[in-house]
Every structure is written in structure tokens, then in C-alpha cells.
Write a structure and sequence with these properties.
Length: 613
């Protein structure tokens, strides 16, 4: 009989990972056995396999949509079978006895447990990539004089940096210009219902950062199974996210789940001793001999006991997101190096969700049942590569046009922080039950595009964004009214009739010719790509599909150079630029991971532990 060899048995291992198609919401042992070619399904103990990932596959190449599970079969657990059963199985299917295997990473916990466990075991390690959380080999506690660090911004990057640093015993002050979620919710309500914009408490600014009133998608392109991403996901679960985010192929939370999660996160930080200052805006850095030694802050709420204050710190983590344009300007005043970078601009398209369900699922669309059915509300992801030069413009590089931040069952929202600049994005609640599906259709742009419009220098990309935001505000006629055009009319370069399809956008829409918004090569790239998307998703070009202008803040237009190991700014000592605004992340999860890595890097710098980062 082919029993696995001893050394094979001893090391913990991932044994066999396969995708299991299923029409059921839970994979059955017999389906797993079939795909694994396990000889007798009834002998496969259910505890031998673990579901690692669950997704719904509605690709057109499939005969019909189905769930796909990635399961892991653990031979060790099979070894619990009676020897006779094992022998019988091995004879029937020798491959099982010699199953391919890869070493399994040790289970990665949430950040709180990781740091606590390491405080206890001191010399042990834990799994993770990049080394940041892979081996806190020599943990040094307690610190005699507490180091004082300011974290500016309570978005995912700032929150995770704060969590790591405070768990290491650093004295952290978290400074946020916006309001806690309870108050921020009221301010967003006033914007959406009464068009009253609070410039410091809105869809971009406030507790949780830009991703709080969002779809809460937790998909990321930085390696879903990496130790760092898993630690972030498990930390979110610790603070109240459902465990399903750990296995869902496309995990998402929705605004209604993010809000209580953020409250729990805040409570934990406060219990640890973090001083959280909402309604406090950082206006300037205090710099001495090329080193940041403090911050000038002011009351951004108009309700605090101070108007401005100077605060001293040993280091500052700057996690301000990419809408804090005043901060970029302030950094330039300190002669810091800022580099313009590529990003993407475009329009947000909205379809009836039912149409997207039908396009993706055909007859099964009925099973969606407004987010309550067995199968998920349908989404899509499309991309097309286009030559950048269109017909008229002297660019030769290739661009891509892609769907971005798709919100099934969601709504289009205004993300302006200033009424003269109009920009939009999408959000949803956890059930994704609204009758609309929206997504950005964005075209990549580079510094060449900025220069072509006569925008130069480090903030050329910011000026480029602002240009289209101002044009959109003018085209809408002001007061946050968004210029719109049906996809069909956009394709035909024709103004939409006054009876335009309904939109989820609550602040009003106005028919306009969106060809007047962007330079011709961007418009042509959008037109060309939309016609390709229609081939992939027949019905995408429809009278019921409405394009909204303008989507400009897909990612940061600027990068703040930093040392890749220490995360410290290359132009100013003591400053740690992190997250999306610094140009190192694009989304909730990657921003959180960047903040977490920065926290570990700074803790190492402060000599709180030794590690081979
Ligand atoms: P941010 O989240 O932008 O946080 C920066 C924080 O810094 C803000 O709270 C701000 O108030 C604060 N701040 C700025 N300047 C100062 C200052 N001078 N003083 C004090 N505080 C300051 N991503 C996803 O992955 N999934 C999604 O579904 C998703 N949906 C989105 C929907 C919307 C409507 C928006 C706007 C964004 C969405 N994103 C989504 C993008 C995501 O929110 C960002 O990528 C992410 O929040 C970036 O995190 P961050 O911590 O780097 O910055």
C-alpha cells in the first residue's frame, strides 16, 4: 500500500488544491471527490477538505453559470481513515498516496493576535510575505520612553498603521480632518438630500476615509492569498466583517457593514490608548534640520476648543488619500519631491441591474431576487486596449480602457469636496439591492496627456483632474447636477433627448454632450472600447444605459517618493507617506496593507523589534 512517507506526513502542508464546480451553495463531498478523482466519494471525510475560495462563474465560455469552490484536501486527515480503508483507496487510485504537495504557510492571524502572540512567544515567527509580518524575531518590550507618532488620516492606510504602531507600544495620535462615522453620516445625508456640502466631512473626508460610503469591495490586485492581505482581512473580521470575506472570490462589505466595523476599530484603538482627534486638519509640517518634528493643526469642524495648535512628534505617518490636494501643495512648500504619475479618467456608466443580470446569467437572472437570491447580483469586468493616438493626437503609446469600481445594486454618488469641481464614484449597501448597476469606464492617462493641456510640474495630474471636474460642473449647470448622456447617444455623438432614463444619482442629472468633456483621443478610446464591451456583454449599448460625467479620481495623480525598506520619505526625514494619496495603493485592501507595512517598518526603525524586512 502506498502510504505517504514519514517526512511527507510530518510537515504541515497544503496537499491538493482544485476548483470544484457546483450548482449548490456548499460543495458536496461527492463533487469534491469527483474532481479530485478520489475513488470512493463516500470515503472522503468532509473534514478532510476545506473551502478556500467561493466564487460564481458566469463567464460566457461556460455552458451555464455555476459556483466554483477552491478546496484544499489534507492528506493528514485522510490518514485518520482506518488503515484498511486507506489501503483500499491507494490501490484503486495510487495518485492519492503520492499527492503533490506544497508547504502550507502557518496560519496567519489578524494583526492584533499576530502582535500579541509575538509578544508572548518572543522568538517564534508567523507566516506572511515580504517579511513585514513574517518574523518578529526579537521583540523588545517594554519601551521606556514612549515614542510619539502622528498618523494623519483615518482611511484604511492610517487605521492599519495606527493599529500596528499602538500595538507595539508607540504613543499614537490619529489626526483626521473629517468627522466620526456617526456625524459624517449626517453630513453625507445633508449633501445627498439638501445639497449642503461640508468641505471637511463628505464622501472623501472622515472616519474610514474615502472607502467608507463605498461598495466596500475587498478585491485587490496585490495577491489575494498573501499573508499580508489575509492579515488585513482577518483584522476586518475581528472588527465585525463577516467571515465569508475570507473565502468569497469577490468579497465586499457595503456601507452598512463598514460603519459598525469602523466603530469597533475605533473602540479598539481608543482602548489601547490612541488619541483620536477628529475635526482636526493638518495644515503644515514643522521641520527642523530636514527632519519633521511636529505638525500645525487647525479645527476643521468649527466646533473645537482651539483654532490652531502646534504639536510635537518623533515621526509622522502621512495617510491623507488622494483628494487632499491642499496637502500636496503644502508638501511642495517644503521642497519635497512629488512625481506626477499615470492614472485614469472617464465616465461612470449606469445600467438597470436587471439588464446586467440578464446579460450575465440569461435565464438564471430570476434567481438573483434583488440581492436575496441564491446567486450574487451580477457584475462585470471589461477591458480593452486602444492605440493612444486616436485620429488626431500625436500619442503613440497604448492605452487601456477598463471598467473600474463596479458597483452592482449600487448608486452613483458625488465625491466632490468643492462645489466648483464635480466628480463622482459609486457605492452600495451589503445586499446590493438597488435597481441600478454602475461602473467607471476609465481610460489611462500619463504625464504626456497633462503636458498636452499645458499642465506641467509635479501637480500637473492634479490640474488635469481639476480641469475636467470644472468642465463637468459647468456642463451640469452647478449645484452638483451631473451631465449625462445615454450610451447610444454618446456612441452617435448626439445630445440625449430631455427624457433620459432614470439615474440612481440623487442630486440631479442634466442631458449634455459628453463629447465636449475630454480631449478627442479619450472620447474616441471610450467609444471604441464601449463598442467592444457590447460584443462581450450584448446589450451594454442601450437606451437605458446612462453615462455620467466625470470620473477623475481613480487613483493618485502623484507619487511621494519613499525608501522602499524604511518607508521614510526620500526628501524629509521623519515623514512616512503611505496609502493611496502617496501613490502606493489603489483600493481599500491595498491601502490597508501599505499602512500595515509602514507600521511595521516604522516600529522597526524605532527599534521596537528586529526583523529582516
Ligand atoms: P483615504 O481613504 O482617502 O483616507 C485619507 C484620510 O485622510 C481621509 O479620511 C481624510 O479625511 C484624511 N485627511 C486628508 N487630509 C488630511 C489633513 N490635512 N489632516 C487630517 N486628515 C486628513 N476601494 C475599494 O477597494 N473598494 C471599493 O468598493 C471602493 N469604493 C469606493 C467608493 C467611493 C465613493 C470612493 C470615493 C472610493 C472608493 N474606493 C474603493 C477607493 C478607496 O476608498 C481608497 O482606495 C482608499 O480609501 C484609500 O485609502 P487611504 O487610507 O490611502 O486614503
Amino acid at each position: 500500500p502506498r502510504r505517504p512517507k514519514a517526512d511527507f506526513i510530518q510537515s504541515p502542508r497544503r496537499i491538493y488544491t482544485r476548483s470544484i464546480p457546483s450548482h449548490l451553495e456548499q460543495p458536496q463531498a461527492k463533487e469534491v471527490a469527483k474532481v479530485l478523482e478520489f475513488p470512493v466519494a463516500s470515503m472522503l471525510p468532509p473534514e478532510a477538505f476545506t473551502v478556500l475560495r467561493k466564487s460564481f462563474d458566469a463567464r460566457k465560455s461556460q455552458k451555464e453559470p455555476k459556483f466554483v469552490y477552491t478546496v484544499e484536501l489534507d492528506v493528514e486527515k485522510l490518514l485518520n481513515l482506518e488503515p484498511r480503508t486507506w489501503d483500499f483507496i491507494s490501490r484503486l487510485e495510487p495518485k492519492i498516496g503520492l499527492i503533490e504537495h506544497t508547504p502550507r504557510e502557518r496560519v496567519v492571524g489578524d494583526l492584533v493576535s499576530i502582535i500579541h502572540d509575538n509578544k508572548k512567544i518572543n522568538h517564534d515567527g508567523f507566516a506572511g510575505e515580504n517579511g513585514h509580518c513574517s518574523s518578529l524575531s526579537s521583540y523588545r518590550f517594554p519601551v521606556t520612553k514612549k515614542t510619539k507618532v502622528a498618523v494623519v488620516g483615518s482611511g484604511p492606510a492610517g487605521l492599519f498603521a495606527t493599529l500596528v504602531l499602538e500595538e507595539f507600544g508607540v504613543d499614537v495620535t490619529l489626526i483626521e480632518r473629517g468627522q466620526p462615522v456617526e456625524k459624517r453620516g449626517g453630513d453625507i445625508g445633508a449633501l445627498v438630500v439638501r445639497k449642503i456640502l461640508q468641505s471637511e466631512s463628505n464622501f472623501c473626508f472622515g472616519e474610514g476615509g474615502a472607502g467608507t460610503w463605498s461598495d466596500g469591495k475587498l478585491v485587490t490586485r496585490i495577491g489575494r492569498n498573501s499573508g499580508s492581505v489575509l492579515s488585513v482581512m482577518k483584522t476586518l473580521v475581528r472588527f465585525g466583517a463577516p467571515e465569508s470575506i475570507l473565502i468569497d472570490g469577490k468579497p465586499h462589505l457595503g456601507t452598512d457593514r463598514l460603519i459598525p466595523l469602523l466603530r469597533n476599530f475605533r473602540q479598539h484603538l481608543q482602548d489601547l490608548g490612541v488619541n483620536i482627534r477628529f475635526g482636526t486638519r493638518v495644515d503644515d509640517l514643522i521641520v527642523e534640520n530636514g527632519h519633521v518634528v511636529g505638525l500645525n493643526v487647525s479645527d476643521s469642524s468649527g466646533r473645537l476648543q482651539f483654532s490652531s495648535e502646534k504639536l510635537g512628534f518623533d515621526a509622522v505617518v502621512l495617510a491623507v488619500g488622494h483628494s487632499a490636494r491642499d496637502v500636496y501643495q503644502m508638501l511642495l512648500s517644503h521642497n519635497m519631491e512629488l512625481i506626477p504619475k499615470d492614472f485614469a479618467v472617464g465616465l461612470r456608466v449606469e445600467h438597470p441591474q436587471e439588464l446586467i443580470n440578464i446579460i450575465q446569467y440569461s435565464k438564471l437572472a430570476n434567481e438573483v431576487r434583488n440581492g436575496r437570491g441564491k446567486i450574487p447580483v451580477a457584475d462585470y469586468k471589461v477591458v480593452e486596449y486602444v492605440q493612444g493616438d486616436g485620429n488626431n493626437v500625436p500619442f503613440t503609446s497604448q492605452r487601456s480602457c477598463y471598467s473600474f469600481c463596479m458597483c452592482p445594486g449600487g448608486q452613483v454618488v458625488v465625491t466632490s469636496i468643492n462645489p466648483s469641481e464635480l466628480c463622482i464614484n459609486g457605492m452600495s449597501f451589503s445586499r446590493r439591492a438597488s435597481k441600478w448597476a454602475n461602473a467607471a469606464l476609465a481610460v489611462t492617462v500619463s504625464p504626456k496627456d497633462f503636458n498636452a493641456l499645458n499642465f506641467h510640474g509635479p501637480l500637473a495630474g492634479v490640474e488635469f483632474q481639476r480641469e475636467f471636474e470644472q468642465r463637468a460642473a459647468t456642463m451640469g449647470g452647478g449645484n452638483f447636477v451631473v451631465p449625462v448622456q445615454t450610451v447610444k447617444d454618446f456612441m452617435n455623438n448626439k445630445l440625449s433627448a430631455t427624457t433620459i432614463p432614470s439615474s440612481s444619482y440623487r442630486l440631479g442629472v442634466k442631458a449634455a454632450n459628453l463629447h465636449e468633456l475630454f480631449p478627442i483621443h479619450i472620447t474616441e478610446a471610450l467609444q471604441h472600447s464601449i463598442s467592444t464591451f457590447d460584443q462581450e456583454l450584448p446589450g451594454f449599448i442601450s437606451n437605458d444605459a446612462l453615462l455620467h460625467g466625470v470620473e477623475t479620481r481613480t487613483s493618485s495623480p502623484v507619487q511621494i517618493p519613499r525608501n522602499p525598506d524604511t518607508f521614510e520619505s526620500t526628501s524629509l526625514r521623519g515623514l512616512y507617506p503611505v496609502g493611496e494619496g502617496a501613490g502606493y495603493a489603489g483600493g481599500i485592501v491595498s491601502a490597508a496593507v501599505d499602512g500595515m507595512h509602514a507600521g511595521f517598518a516604522l516600529a522597526k526603525r524605532l527599534d521596537l523589534y528586529e526583523d529582516d524586512i
